[in-house]
Fold:
Amino acid sequence: MRAHHVPLGFVFRSRSKDDKAPASPVAESTQTRDPQAPKGRPTPKRSEAQSQRRSVANTKMSPKEARARTRDERRTAMEKQRAALASGDERYLPARDKGPVRKYARDFVDSRFCIAEYFLPMAVIILVLSMVRVGSLQNIALLLWLFVIVAIVIDSALSGFRLKKQLAEKFPNERRKGAVAYALMRTLQMKRLRLPKPQVKRGERP
Structure:
């Protein structure tokens, strides 16, 4: 029987072509990309994808639900602010009352006796005296009114000067603008009616 000779070149060409053959479709199918993953980025983990879908679902609210949610958040913030005005909790105080400078200004005023805090009661008394049809009482009411105004101006000026000096010493690097005016406006209210509620007693150093 005659032996058939196979050319060596044919064998080598066949092997080289087999080496360069593409991978099987089964191998490619196991490495398919998640359709939710952006192109050129790795596939997100299942927990991350679920949390993203949940956050998107939660943000989809009707206008009525959004208004109700905003109203509830505003009511909660107001309740916290009201409680903070009574307790002095710095976290929920209004912006005008926050900060160590404003707290010191409040304590400075609350620890002192201020003539201005009795302005409204004295004004009522003076008004009643001025309405009486007696000349002497009307003259007394006028003099008393002038005395009260002058006393309040002098006391407020001295208090403002002292407070400004102490603030400059204690808080040299803090913003102090408006703190003195803030404290003087507080003196116009009686101590038990002030908000935030006083945290120091009279005579106690702030």
